Amino acid sequence: MKLPIFLDNHSTTPMDPRVLEAMLPYFTEKFGNAASRNHAFGWAAEEAVDAARKQIAKLIKADAKEIVFTSGATESDNLAIKGVLEMYKEKGTHIITAVTEHRAVLDTAKALEAKGLATVTLLPVDKQGMVSPEDVRNAITDKTVLISVMLANNEIGTINPIKEIGKIAKEKGVLFHCDATQGVGKIPVDVQDMGIDLMSFSAHKIYGPKGIGVLYVRKKNPRVRIAAQMDGGGHERGMRSGTLAVPLIVGFGKACEICGEEMAAETARLTKMRDRLQSAIMGALEETYLNGHPTNRLPGNLNISFAYVEGESLLMGMKDIALSSGSACTSATLEPSYVLRALGVGTELAHSSIRFGLGRFNTDEEIDYTIKKVIEVVTKLREMSPLYEMAKDGVDLKTVQWAAH
Amino acid sequence: MAYSDKVVDHFNNPRNMGSFKKDENGVGTGMVGAPECGDVMKLQIKVQDDTIVDAKFKTFGCGSAIASSSLATEWLKGKTLEEAQKIKNTDIVQELNLPPVKIHCSVLAEDAIKAALADYQKKSETK
Predict the structure, then answer these.
(1) What pTM, to 2 d.p., does this model score?
(2) How many whole angstroms separate alpha carbon A184 and alpha carbon A124?
(3) Which fold has domain A17-258?
(4) Closest chain B residue to A397 measured between Cα atoms?
(5) Where are the domains of chain B?
(6) What is the pLDDT of residues A14-37, one digit of tens each?
(7) What fold characterizes domain B5-126?
(8) Is B60 in Cβ contact with A316 (below 8 Å)?
C-alpha cells in the first residue's frame, strides 16, 4: 500500500492507464488539427474526434451531434447559462437555480445579475441537500428561460430528483440545464428520460485528463440554441470556437467508454467500501453526523462532521491521506462550506466536517488504514478540545457566552 | 499551503496540553474564540508569588491555532505576570512562520493569554 493515500476523488481523479494509452498516439504521431480538411493528418484527427463523440454520447444516451467540446465543466456551465440568456433574452431573463450548486454555476448567474442581464432565484435545499421539484415549479414565471440544477453534489454526494424537475421544465416550456460533473460515469444518466436540455460534465472527474469538458446541447424536442461565448472559426457548429484538443478528446471518449462498461461493478464495489468506512467510523466514535442524503448519494461519497474537532487539524493529523474539509480554515476565503450551511448543519459542525471521496483505484487496505487513522486522530483531538471537555462536563454549549473577537 | 515544521511539531507533540483541577488554587483561566468561527482556545496559568509556574491549554481549531496556543504555554512558564502581559502575537507569528492567512490564530492566542491573566487578577482580588 503506497502512502499518501488519495481519497479526494471528488476534486479530481488519477487517469486510468487505459485512457493514457489511448491518448498517446495523438500527441506525436496522429497530431493533426481536426479542422484540417485537406490532408491525412487532419482526417485522422477528425476521425478520432468523431469516435470520441460517439463514445461520450453513448454514455448519456444522446446523439453524437449534440456533444460540444469545451475546456472543462466550468466553461460548459458558463456557456450554457450565458449562451441561453443571450439567445432567449426576448423571452425573458429569469434563471432558477439552487444554493448548493457549484461556484461555476452560482458565480456565472451572479455575474449576469450584476451586469443587469438576468434575475436569479436561488432555491433552498432540505436538510439532506435535495432540491424540491415543487419549489422549482412555484418559482417559474413567464420570464423564466433557464432552470439549472446539478445531478449530484460534489461535497455531500446527494443526488437530486432530476427526472421530476425535467418533467416540470418540459411542462412549463423552460430549458433545463444540469451540471452533471459528479454524476456522469458514476450513476446512469439518460438525457431523454431525464428531460435534460443542456448538460455539463468533464473528463478529469472520471479518470480522464484535465482540460476537457462537454456541454450536451439538445437538438430535438426542442432544438436548443445558445450564443457562443468563444468566437473565431466557428468550431462545434458555431457554438464554441477553438482548435479541438484531440488527445484530450480521445481520452475523454475512452474514459466514458470504460465508465459505461464498468459502472455496475464499480458502483457495487465503491458502495461496499464506502459503507464499511462509514459504519466503522460512526460506530467507533460518538457524536458523528452524516452530511447529505443517507441513501440517495454518490457511491463513493462520504461526508461526516466530527463534533468538537476542527476539520483542518483533522486533515493535518491524517497527513498521509488526501481528503478535504468544509472548515473555514481550509478555504481560501476563510468561509466555511456554503453547501453545509445550506443544509442547516450549523457553522460549528461545518468546521468539523471531512469529505471522503472513494474512487476506482482505492483498495480495501487503504480503507482499513483510513478507518484506523480517523479514529486515532479524532480521539487525540477530542482530548485536546475545550469543547469536548465542556460537553463531557455536561455543559450545554449552545448556552455559553463566547468571547469571540 | 504546506505547514511549517514548527507548527507540525507542536501539533504532533503538544506542550502542556490539558487542564488544571477545577478547585485548584492560584489558577487563571482564559477562554476565547467561538465554535462558529472554528476557533476556541482555553489557556490556564498557575501562579505562585507573581510568577507563572505552570500553564495548560486546550484548543478547538486548525493546526496553526493549536501550535499558537501550545507555544504560548511554553513561553508563559517561568515568566512573571508583568512579563507575560508583554507577549505579542507577532512574536508567535515569527516563531512559527505563520502565513498571512493564519495570523489571526496568533492574535487569538495573545487574547487567550491576556484573558487568563485578567482572570487570575480578578480571582486574587476577590480573595
Answers:
(1) 0.93
(2) 24
(3) Aspartate Aminotransferase; domain 2 (3.40.640)
(4) B35
(5) 5-126
(6) 999 999 999 999 999 999 999 999
(7) Sufe protein. Chain: A (3.90.1010)
(8) no
Domain ranges of chain A: 5-9+263-392, 17-258
pLDDT digit string (tens) for B35-54?
888 899 999 999 999 999 99
- The answer to whether the Cβ–Cβ distance between B58 and A403 falls below 8 Å is no
Q: What are the tens digits of pLDDT across the range A213-237?
A: 999 999 999 999 999 999 999 999 9
- pLDDT of the residue at B1: 52
A314-333 in b/e form (b: 16+ CB < 10 A) is bbbbbbebebbbbbbbbbee
**Contact criterion met (CB < 8 Å) for B14 and A384:** yes
DSSP code string of A166-188: HHHHHHHT-EEEEE-TTTBTTB-
Closest CA to B62 of B99, B12, B102, B29: B102
Going by pLDDT thresholds of 50, 70 and 90, the confidence category of residue B19 is very high
CATH pick for A5-9+263-392 out of 3.30.1330.60, 3.40.720.10, 3.90.1150.10, 3.40.640.10: 3.90.1150.10
Report whether B88 contacts B107 (CB < 8 A).
Answer: no
Q: How confident is the model over A135-158, as pLDDT tens digits?
A: 999 999 999 999 999 999 999 999
Partners of B35 on chain A (C-beta within 8 Å) are 347-348, 351, 387, 397, 402
Mean pLDDT of B14-26: 91
In this complex, the residue of B58, B61, B108 whose CB is nearest that of residue A313 is B61
Q: Say whether A17-258 and A5-9+263-392 share the same fold.
A: no
Distance of residue A99 Cα from the nearest chain B Cα, in angstroms: 20
Active site residues of B: 37, 105
Closest Cβ opposite residue A385 in set B32, B37, B60: B60
Q: Let me know: does A355 contact A303? Beta carbons within 8 Å.
A: yes
Does residue A329 carry a catalytic annotation? yes
How many residues in total does chain A contain?
Answer: 405
Which residue, among B40, B70, B102, B111, would best test binding to A if mutated, counting the most A CBs under 10 Å from its CB? B40
B115 vs A contacts (CB less than 8 Å): 403
The shortest CB-CB distance from B62 to any of A308, A310, A404 is to: A310
**How many CB contacts within 8 angstroms connect chain A with chain B?**
91
Q: What is the ipTM of this complex?
A: 0.92
Task: Determine the pLDDT at residue A329.
Answer: 75
The answer to whether residues A71 and A213 touch, using CB atoms and an 8 Å cutoff, is yes
**Cell 456541454 identifies what position?**
A215
Interface of A with B (CB under 8 A): 308-313, 316-317, 327-330, 332, 334, 336, 346-348, 351, 383-389, 397, 402-405
* Residue B100 CB partners (closer than 8 Å, separation 6+): none
